[in-house]
Amino acid sequence: MSETSRRKFLASTGAGVAAGAVVGLGGGAAQAVTTRRKYAATEAVVAYVQDPEANVVHLMVGDREVIVEDHELVARILNAAGGH
């Protein structure tokens, strides 16, 4: 993803939307605790679900993009973004 399109994406979505989705992921008393690995990202990460049916999350990390196929993660992000 080019730097220009990343900037447009970040400007159009707003940091508040991304932060709200990430904060909402931690809800639910029955969820297992996940420990960060020593090589986990140490900078801001923005998650983008382009197609909810594809179960793919695009992660913008610094100046790179990481694509992850994870049904559970997509479901948790979409549930958190629903606001209920």
List the defining traits of the structure above.
alpha+beta, three-stranded antiparallel sheet, 84 residues, 39% helix, globular, 3 helices
Quick structural overview:
The protein is built from three helices and three strands; from the N terminus they run ααβββα. It has helices at 3-13, 15-24, 71-82; strands spanning 45-48, 56-61, 64-69.
What does this structure look like?
The chain is an alpha+beta fold and 84 residues long. Helices cover 39% and strands 19% of the residues. It has helices spanning 3-13, 15-24, 71-82, and strands at residues 45-48, 56-61, 64-69. A three-stranded antiparallel β-sheet has the order 1-2-3. Helix 2 packs across helix 3 (71-82). Mean pLDDT is 78; it is low at 15-21.
Would you spell out the secondary-structure blueprint of this structure?
Layout lengths: L2 H11 L1 H10 L20 E4 L7 E6 L2 E6 L1 H12 L2
Antiparallel strand pairs: 1-2, 2-3
